[in-house]
Amino acid sequence: MGKLEDIDVNELGEKVVKVIKTIYDPEIPVDIYELGLIYDVFVNEDYEVKVLMTLTTPNCPVAESLPQEVEEKIKSIDLVKDAEVEITFDPPWSQDLMSEEAKLELGML
């Protein structure tokens, strides 16, 4: 039997989400998580994180820098061994993916 882990992958996943929520879309005053740009966060037993995310548009001005920022911020979490961000446009982002909070913030509700 291995020793008990200090932190489980779910907890680490929550930390990753917290960090992601500190990253904002440059054009919209809402974090990328509430915007619905993060499709999935995977954390494996080795504390490697993979994030599946999208951008508001394929030619988004931060198409290069945003995924990199997400990756770097996740890598800065103590326990994370590695992080990889994969961009997908399937399904394409739409305003329906935004949280109620984001819609409220943007006066859409």
Write out key terms for the chains shown.
109 residues; 3-stranded mixed beta sheet; alpha+beta; GMP Synthetase, Chain A, domain 3; 3 strands
Question: What does this molecule look like?
Answer:
This is SUF system Fe-S cluster assembly protein. Residues 14-87 form the MIP18 family-like domain. It holds the Pfam family FeS_assembly_P. InterPro entries: Fe-S_Maturation_MIP18, FSCA_dom_sf, MIP18-like, SUF_FeS_clus_asmbl-assoc. By secondary structure, this protein is α+β, with helices and mostly antiparallel strands. It has one domain (9-105): 2-Layer Sandwich (GMP Synthetase, Chain A, domain 3). Helices cover 27% and strands 17% of the residues. It contains 3 helices and 3 strands. It has helices at 9-20, 65-75, 100-105; strands at residues 38-43, 48-53, 82-87. A 3-stranded mixed β-sheet has the order 1-2-3, with helices on one face. The radius of gyration is 15 Å and the shape is globular. The model has no long low-confidence stretch (mean pLDDT 91).
